[in-house]
Specification:
Blueprint (H helix, E strand, L loop, with lengths): L2 H15 L4 H7 L3 H5 E4 L2 E4 L7 H13 L2 H9 L26 E2 L2 E2 L1 H19 L13 E5 L6 H9 L9 E5 L4 H8 L7 E6 L6 H18 L3 H5 E5 L2 H6 L7 E3 L16 H6 L4 H18 L6 H14 L5 E6 L7 H13 L17 E4 L10 H6 L6 E6 L7 H20 L18 E6 L4 H22 L10 H16 L7 H11 L3
Parallel strand pairs: 5-6, 5-7, 7-8, 8-9, 10-11, 10-12, 12-13
Antiparallel strand pairs: 1-2, 2-13, 3-4
Helix pairs in contact: 1-4, 4-14, 13-18, 14-18, 15-18, 19-20
Bound molecules: 6-O-phosphono-beta-D-fructofuranose.
Length: 524
């Protein structure tokens, strides 16, 4: 079968599908759980409550073959140019690969470089935890303020919260991302400058938010400790070493970031330095090991049993054949509250595109609108919509098998709620004739990912799972998931408007923006 006939077959099945509720598919397909659930490293993926059947899955697998999905992942692992608009490799897998696995980018051996960077990070983090990194007054640096935004912040912030139980007791980690000064002010509030380290993380070292916050932090250090303070109290992570040094950060204190890693895939690199130092010894390495285990799974398992790739195919089906344009992420763990924000960037910045790698409109959707919040809170916010709303929104339920709070009552109640929601969405419930508002149609799809534990290993595997699933959807749609040209225009317009606000300059502006400039520049 060629691509056109597979696509036609899938469209046909999608319309026929409207007749077969998910629940009925379990009766039709007695082995449904076997082919739609996968024990992967660190997590169990149950895709059986998605609205696909054996036939549609078979066609999706054929389409993956035609589109050389596995071949793309092999090319990515080999460090070939897969980021076509920027002529780069996407070698985030190298950052977590075991030390003895040779890795390349664009034909160059990068293993030694990666190992050196990892060693440098580990040395710094160990010394920091041991109290051997000292400031201008000789006191040990104990509070880290991590300044960065997007891929330079979301991952470390998510994991600092998620791995709270693995934190190094003597260390404190704070974050500032927003251009609104409130965040950096709050982060600095109550910190002792003598014991504070500022980590500035920016791949480009040109990001408006990060530079504004870094300047404020630098001024704070200088005000309290004198002009030599930045040399001892600031480090940077960037692929733009010169800009970091120009900012006043000592060359030795600039950790490198390679151009073959994209911002939203960079958590595994020196971008994680603050996190590594704030976690117990070995935790960051366990995170890398979990991600690497998922990488092995993705590269060595046939697509039909491959958790991220199979899930990617199902999400591709949801967007393009079932025409579902939203997806919600609901982790049933309070410590995973930031997972939806992290995945919003990963999925929407990677795949929120409609021009294909061939420069033509892709005509397919690789990213639905992503939103989410932690369960059970989300049940009291947007679940009304999920159960009875006008549009069907597939859900990712993420649960944690092990009770780390040592509170079995709570733990079972949380997981019971998660299972209840996925079941209720699938099964629905009828209503009496006089109460149509109590009708639940059901037949609403979801995935359940059950993590072994809220451990560094399982979380590494989970984030790697989502990275691969995201890339898989892009490949199926013929998009490049590794660039983000869509964020550029707004940045340029903002630069122009910042000047205009200062001078109340409305020349050439549309009437709406002109009126707003006047109001902001001269508040009444
Ligand atoms: O939002 C655009 C973006 O370039 C993201 O891709 C990136 O994660 C973020 O800004 C931060 O960029 P940088 O690390 O260069 O400061």
């Amino acid at each position: 079968m060629n691509e056109t006939s597979i696509m036609a077959g899938l469209s046909d099945l999608a319309s026929a599908h409207k007749l077969r509720p998910i629940k009925a598919l379990f009766d039709d397909e007695p082995n449904r759980l076997q082919f739609l659930s996968i024990q992967a490293p660190g997590l169990y993926a149950d895709l059986s409550k998605q609205k696909v059947d054996e036939k549609s899955l078979a066609l999706l697998l054929q389409l993956a073959k035609v589109k050389n999905l596995s071949g793309f992942f092999t090319a990515m692992a080999e460090g070939k140019i897969v980021n076509l608009t920027e002529n780069r490799a996407a070698q985030h897998m190298a950052l977590r690969a075991p030390a003895d696995l040779p890795m390349q980018a664009l034909g160059q051996d990068i293993s030694a470089d990666v190992q050196n960077q990892r060693r440098k990070m580990r040395r710094f983090a160990d010394q920091m935890r041991e109290g051997n990194i000292t400031g201008t007054t000789g006191r040990a640096l104990r509070t880290i303020i991590h300044i960065g935004i997007g891929g330079s912040e979301l991952g470390p912030r998510l994991l600092a919260q998620a791995l709270y139980r693995h934190r190094a007791p003597a260390m404190e980690l704070r974050f500032a991302a927003n251009l609104d000064a409130a965040e950096i002010n709050d982060a600095l509030q109550g910190c002792d400058p003598e014991t504070t380290l500022i980590t500035v993380v920016s791949k480009t070292f040109t990001t408006r938010e990060t530079l504004a916050n870094a300047k404020m932090a630098r001024a704070w250090l200088v005000q309290h400790l004198g002009k030599d303070a930045p040399a001892k109290h600031m480090i940077a992570v960037s692929s733009n070493r010169a800009a970091g040094q120009k900012f006043g950060i000592k060359s030795d204190n600039v950790f490198a970031l390679n151009d073959w890693v994209g911002g939203r895939f960079s958590l595994w690199s020196a971008v994680g330095i603050s996190l590594m130092a704030a976690l117990q010894e070995g935790a960051f390495e366990d995170l890398l090991a979990g991600a690497a285990a998922m990488d092995r799974h993705v590269l060595q398992t046939p697509v039909a049993q491959n958790a991220p790739l199979l899930s990617g195919l199902i999400q591709y089906w949801n967007c393009n054949f079932a025409h579902l344009q939203g997806r919600t992420i609901v982790p049933y763990a309070a410590r995973l509250a930031l997972l939806p924000s992290y995945l919003q960037q990963l999925i929407m910045e990677s795949n929120g595109k409609n021009i294909g790698v061939d420069g033509k409109p892709a005509g397919q959707t690789a990213s639905p609108v992503i939103f989410g919040a932690e369960g059970t809170n989300a049940q009291h916010a947007f679940f009304q919509y999920l159960h009875q709303g006008p549009a069907i929104v597939p859900v990712d339920f993420i649960g944690v098998g092990q009770d780390q709070e040592n509170n079995p009552g709570h733990h079972h109640a949380v997981l019971a709620n998660m299972l209840a929601q996925s079941r209720a969405l699938m099964c629905g419930a009828g209503a009496k004739a006089d109460a149509p508002h109590k009708m639940f149609e059901g037949n609403r799809p979801s995935t359940t990912l059950l993590l072994d534990a809220l451990s560094p290993f399982s979380l590494g595997a989970l984030l790697s799972f989502y990275e691969h699933e995201t890339v898989a959807q892009a490949v199926m749609c013929g998009l490049n998931p590794f660039d983000q040209w869509g964020v550029e225009l707004g940045k340029h317009v903002a630069f122009d408007l910042e000047n205009r606000l200062e001078n109340a300059d409305t020349k050439g502006m549309d009437p709406s923006t002109a009126a707003l400039i006047k109001k902001i520049a001269k508040p009444s």
